[in-house]
Design a protein that fits this description.
- Residues 20-167 form the CHAT domain.
- It comes from Larkinella humicola.
- It holds the Pfam family CHAT.
- By secondary structure, the chain is an alpha/beta fold.
- The protein folds into three domains: 5-208, 3-Layer(aba) Sandwich (Rossmann fold), CATH 3.40.50; 237-456; 459-511, no CATH class.
- Helix content is 34%, strand content 14%.
- It is built from 17 helices and 15 strands.
- The protein has helices at 25-41, 56-66, 93-100, 119-124, 139-153, 160-169, 235-241, 271-284, 318-330, 340-344, 347-350, 368-380, 410-414, 419-428, 459-469, 475-485, 496-511; strands at residues 6-10, 72-76, 83-86, 89-92, 107-111, 129-133, 197-201, 258-265, 291-292, 309-310, 354-362, 395-403, 443-445, 486-487, 490-494.
- The strands form four sheets. Strands 8, 9, 10, 11, 12 and 13 form a six-stranded parallel sheet that branches. The protein has a five-stranded mixed sheet with strand order 1-2-5-6-7.
- β14 (486-487) and β15 (490-494) form a beta hairpin.
- The relative contact order is 0.11.
């Protein structure tokens, strides 16, 4: 029997005047992509790369390439009863039906507003099942529903009907939030449906369809610690990181309510990976802690890039940084002063013991104004510390990742010597660093000796990693992962962020009990 073929398309044009930008769309695609990539890696499905900026020509080419074997088509974005939005404008129901002619996929999932208008045409065209909406749906809830559905449907032996019911049962699908955007649309002829999403079909046999067959687990494999996926040399940085925590109290609590860490590394060296590794060991590894962690290695539903605060030379005032931070963490912009008190009042932060945020900027963008902007942000974004105790929460941890490429940066061309030292100098001289007493230092520089991150740069290192930690992985699977992560223009260097993500996925799969 041929493998299921799944194609995902989305569009989120930021230039449309009448349709707002959908903040939750990227998270939906990333989450589903992670689940389906794992099935593809296990050779259970065929999964073309999802199209995230789809136009009419792009969707046509994708369908032609897939030929007659399409099993699932998923669209997410703005929609109405008769059209959904692509980057080059509206895409009509007739266009979709023409494109699907002869393919007869088992499932079409149209995750936008009021897509019920498509159902009759799709079923008449031979589609076996359709998931569509009977009314307008908030952006965040549309994302939550889709993620819940695919989480269930990618489990072994989970039927289409079971996956749909489980998604409905775990989502408060009709209650809106004032800061979310609707995915277009308007009420249809059945606005009083008990659930915004419906599963429609002609023959009930399709409800028993399973995407993933049962798996046979023949050997018990010991669990692999997830921190093994992070490849940077942790130990030399842990000695700098740990003193900011008051370990003597028996809890991993910070000496100060807000702590800033600064890391310099090359793009392929993944300074973000070092931050994730340190926080994993100190905070997120403990399931009893409550934390708000944008790049959480315990949560494969979020890509590390989803909530990374990316700065550039335009962020030349601390207010611009605060606005970007607020937008990333809360999912909306705000025109107020955004003081630390307002930030602490955000429910997700207020109700967490820890909030950990990563900010990234390229070294070439660190002109004097931006450096001063960051310094002022670090100075101003601190609550009063008088009377703070070990039980005072939340704690805020900021990881500032500076990306520096020695051979391409102006630092090397015009400033000979230790360029990392020159990058760090204004921060060391900012008055925020006390290297002799980390408990009193608002800023801790992890590149303590002005060195770049220690990272693997040889295929031998990766082969050794597989021997040590994934001895049970098939040789073909190891080779497939290895060959995909080396940079084409630098055969000896590893694309560390991509590799860490793939290794986390492998570890997750090998640690997941298989259904007998």
């Amino acid at each position: 029997m041929s493998k299921p073929v799944i194609f995902i398309a989305s569009a989120n044009p930021s230039t449309l005047d009448d349709e707002p930008y959908l903040l939750a769309l990227k998270d939906e695609i990333k989450y589903i992509d992670e689940l389906l990539s794992e099935l593809e890696l296990n050779e259970e499905i065929i999964y073309p790369t999802p199209s995230t900026e789809t136009d009419s020509e792009g969707i046509r080419k994708a369908f032609v390439k897939i030929s007659q074997n399409l099993t699932v088509f998923h669209y997410c974005g703005h929609a109405s009863q008769t059209n959904f939005t692509l980057t080059d404008g509206s895409y009509s129901q007739d266009q979709l039906l023409t494109l699907l002619s002869g393919k007869k996929p088992k499932l079409v999932f149209l995750n936008g507003c009021s897509t019920y208008g498509y159902v009759e045409g799709l079923l008449n065209a031979g589609v076996e099942a359709v998931i569509a909406t009977s009314t307008a749906v908030p952006d965040g809830q549309a994302s939550t529903f889709a993620k819940a559905f695919y989480f269930s449907f990618t489990r072994p032996l989970r039927t289409l009907q079971q996956a749909f019911y489980e998604a409905v049962s775990t989502s408060n699908v009709l209650s809106g939030k004032p800061f979310t955007f609707l995915r277009g649309g308007f009420p249809t002829e059945i606005p009083d449906a008990p659930c915004a999403w419906g599963l429609y079909y002609n023959q009930p046999e399709v409800l028993k369809w399973t995407l993933v067959s049962k798996r046979v687990h023949t050997e018990k494999i010991p669990l692999i610690d997830r921190q093994k996926a992070f490849l940077c040399d942790r130990d030399q940085y842990r000695n700098v990181f740990d003193p900011s925590f008051n370990l003597s109290q028996g809890l991993d609590v910070l000496y100060r309510p807000v702590q800033h860490y600064l890391i310099v590394g090359e793009d392929y060296q993944s300074p973000l990976g070092l931050a994730r590794k340190l926080v994993y060991e100190k905070i997120t590894k403990n399931p009893d802690r409550i934390y708000n962690y944008p790049f959480d290695p315990n949560d494969r539903r979020r890509d590390a890039d989803d909530m990374l605060v990316k700065l550039n030379r335009a962020y030349d005032t601390p207010l611009k940084i605060r606005r970007e931070l607020y937008k990333i963490v809360k999912g909306q912009d705000d025109s107020t002063s955004l003081s630390v008190e307002e930030f602490l009042a955000i429910p997700a932060i207020k109700n967490s013991q820890y909030t950990i945020v990563a900010l990234q900027i390229k070294a070439d963008d660190l002109n004097e104004k931006v450096q001063e902007s960051i310094r002022q942000f670090m100075t101003e974004f601190r609550p009063p510390e008088t009377g703070m105790t070990s039980s005072a929460h939340p704690y805020l941890l900021f990881f500032w990742n500076i990306i520096f490429t020695p051979k391409q940066s102006w630092f090397s061309a015009f400033m000979p010597g230790n360029s990392v030292k020159k990058i760090l100098r204004p921060f060391r001289n900012s008055g925020l660093v006390d290297p002799d007493d980390p408990a009193r230092s608002p800023l801790i520089i992890l590149n303590q000796d002005d060195e770049l991150l220690a990272v693997p740069d040889q295929r031998k290192y990766l082969e050794e990693w597989f021997r040590n930690y994934l001895r049970h992985a098939p040789d073909a699977e190891k080779e497939r992962v290895i060959t995909r992560i080396f940079q084409p223009d630098h055969p000896g260097k590893i694309d560390v962020p991509a590799l860490e993500d793939k290794l986390l996925t492998l570890i997750e799969r090998f640690n997941t009990p298989q259904t007998p």
